[in-house]
Amino acid sequence: MDLRYVRYAMAIARAGSLRRAAAALHIAQPTLSEQLRALEKEVGVELFSRSSSGVQLTEAGEAFLAQATVAVDAFDRAVAAARSGGRDARLGVADGLADVVARVLSQLHGLRLRVAPMSTAEQIISIVDGTLQAGLGYAPGSLPRGVARMLVHRFPVRALMHRDHPLAGADAVSLADLAAEPLVMPESDAVAGARRFLEGFVRHRLHPRLGPSAATHDLAITMIERGAGYTLCVHEGTPVPDALTFLPVKEDVPPLEVVFLWNRQADVPELVSAARHVARTG
Question: What is the pTM (predicted TM-score) of this model?
Answer without folding.
Answer: 0.63
